DNA sequence: AATCCGGGGTT
DNA sequence: AACCCAGGATT
């Protein structure tokens, strides 16, 4: 074993034990709870995921509770956290563990990979933390720390890069305490070796950090550029009947917000006036469902809702109708439905104004 | 190998 | 506006 390796892991773990945050999932080795936390923290900051973790543990103390819950309940608790496929896969995996595995949680890296929504990172995290299996985690923090300390310039989002960093991380892992080591590396990336302007002068590795020596800290890690965002224009038809009922549709098929609910949506290629809106095919279909008495634009200025790779420009049309079919729901029950943040923001704003 | 999938924070 | 976040699935 290279002397360098021992130095790195010992220094790192020492730093971790002195600087780690107290987090609820660090007080347990219950694989269910570790799994839950790891899924929630995928592409999600600890501060953002934490309140959701607490809500889920409270609502679903065991994998059986989660499995038995209706999907609508799970999605409602997940509302606002994003990447909703995580919630759907979590629920499906809970069914699998509860029923097929009779509640016996997968207890090694290989079997963990069979769970929906569990990839190399998550399987490694659970296996190392819960079962002491030496599988190296490679998340965004690990890419950053290792690329800098060891001066690796391979793009982290290339196939070669993923392979190379996993191999390097695997070589460095402390097999005696893999869970602690993995968390130490991630914590160091999250709290010290940060993306922008890290404090290299005081860093525990600055004597040996390749990036620091070569003045490449701001250039590492290398990442291939992604394509630009697409713009979309959403016209939401907020139906209001005299009985204070409205219409919600569940999004199905591909694309964003699968299984979440929304008002009837008419998408247009650009921002449209009322006259232009009424010419759209989607509007004709909509107007066959309800008897429109009046229609007024709620927000002249579009709400801009930014997703990772789409910018949504949304306008809400308040549509008074005389009749509504039995698919309508009371407006007061809308809060029971999982909806995208874009919709939740409108509902909150509209409700205040309306009452 | 590329692309898609949210929402929020930082710079 | 661009980048990032305890990534994974799909095409």
From TrEMBL:
EC top class named in words: hydrolase
InterPro entries linked to this entry: A/G_AdeGlyc_MutY (IPR005760), DNA_glycosylase (IPR011257), Endonuclease3_FeS-loop_motif (IPR003651), HhH-GPD_domain (IPR003265), HhH_base_excis_C (IPR023170), HhH_motif (IPR000445), MIG/MutY (IPR044298), MutY_C (IPR029119)
Cofactors, names only: [4Fe-4S] cluster
Residue stretches spanning the membrane: none
EC number(s) reported in the record: 3.2.2.31
The reaction(s) this protein catalyses: Hydrolyzes free adenine bases from 7,8-dihydro-8-oxoguanine:adenine mismatched double-stranded DNA, leaving an apurinic site
Domain of life: Bacteria
Signal peptide location: none
Gene3D superfamilies cross-referenced by the UniProt entry: Helix-hairpin-Helix base-excision DNA repair enzymes (C-terminal) (1.10.1670.10), Hypothetical protein, domain 2 (1.10.340.30), Nucleoside Triphosphate Pyrophosphohydrolase (3.90.79.10)
Molecular function in Gene Ontology: 4 iron, 4 sulfur cluster binding; 8-oxo-7,8-dihydroguanine DNA N-glycosylase activity; adenine/guanine mispair binding; metal ion binding; oxidized purine DNA binding; purine-specific mismatch base pair DNA N-glycosylase activity
Record-annotated HhH-GPD domain positions: 40-191
Any single biological process term in GO: base-excision repair
Keyword terms, alphabetized: 4Fe-4S, DNA damage, DNA repair, Glycosidase, Hydrolase, Iron, Iron-sulfur, Metal-binding
Cofactor-binding details, from the entry: Binds 1 [4Fe-4S] cluster.
Family: Belongs to the Nth/MutY family.
Chain's role: Adenine glycosylase active on G-A mispairs. MutY also corrects error-prone DNA synthesis past GO lesions which are due to the oxidatively damaged form of guanine: 7,8-dihydro-8-oxoguanine (8-oxo-dGTP).
Name of the protein this chain belongs to: Adenine DNA glycosylase
Organism: Marixanthomonas spongiae
Gene transcribed to yield this protein: mutY
């Amino acid at each position: 074993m290279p002397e360098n390796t021992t130095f790195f892991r010992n220094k790192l773990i020492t730093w971790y034990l002195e600087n780690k945050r107290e987090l609820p999932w660090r007080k347990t080795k219950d694989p269910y709870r570790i799994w839950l936390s790891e899924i929630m923290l995928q592409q999600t900051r600890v501060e953002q995921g934490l309140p959701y973790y607490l809500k889920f543990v409270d609502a679903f103390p065991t994998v059986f509770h989660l499995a038995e819950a209706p999907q609508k309940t799970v999605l409602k608790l997940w509302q606002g956290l994003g990447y909703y496929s995580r919630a759907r896969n979590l629920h499906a995996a809970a069914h699998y563990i509860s029923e097929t595995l009779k509640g016996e949680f997968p207890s090694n890296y290989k079997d963990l990979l069979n769970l929906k929504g569990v990839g190399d990172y998550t399987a490694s995290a659970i296996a190392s933390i819960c079962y002491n299996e030496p599988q190296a985690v490679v998340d965004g923090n690990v890419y950053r720390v290792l690329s800098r300390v060891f001066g690796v310039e391979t793009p982290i989002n290339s196939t070669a890069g993923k392979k190379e960093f996993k191999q390097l991380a695997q070589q460095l892992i402390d097999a005696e305490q893999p869970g602690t080591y993995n968390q130490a590396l991630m914590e160091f990336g999250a709290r010290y070796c940060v993306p922008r302007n890290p404090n290299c002068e005081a860093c525990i590795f600055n004597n040996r950090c390749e990036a620091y020596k070569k003045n490449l800290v701001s250039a590492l890690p290398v990442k291939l550029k992604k394509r630009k965002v697409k713009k979309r224009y959403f016209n939401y038809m907020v139906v209001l009947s005299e009985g204070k009922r409205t219409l919600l549709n569940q999004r199905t098929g591909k694309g964003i917000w699968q299984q979440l609910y929304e008002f009837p949506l008419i998408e247009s290629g650009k921002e449209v006036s009322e006259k232009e809106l009424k010419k759209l095919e989607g509007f004709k279909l909509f107007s066959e469902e309800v008897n429109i008495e009046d229609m007024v634009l709620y927000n002249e200025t579009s709400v801009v809702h930014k997703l990772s790779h789409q910018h949504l420009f949304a306008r809400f049309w308040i549509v008074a109708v005389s009749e509504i079919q039995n698919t309508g729901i009371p407006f007061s029950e809308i809060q029971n439905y999982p909806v995208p943040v874009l919709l939740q923001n409108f509902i909150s704003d509209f409700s205040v104004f309306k009452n």
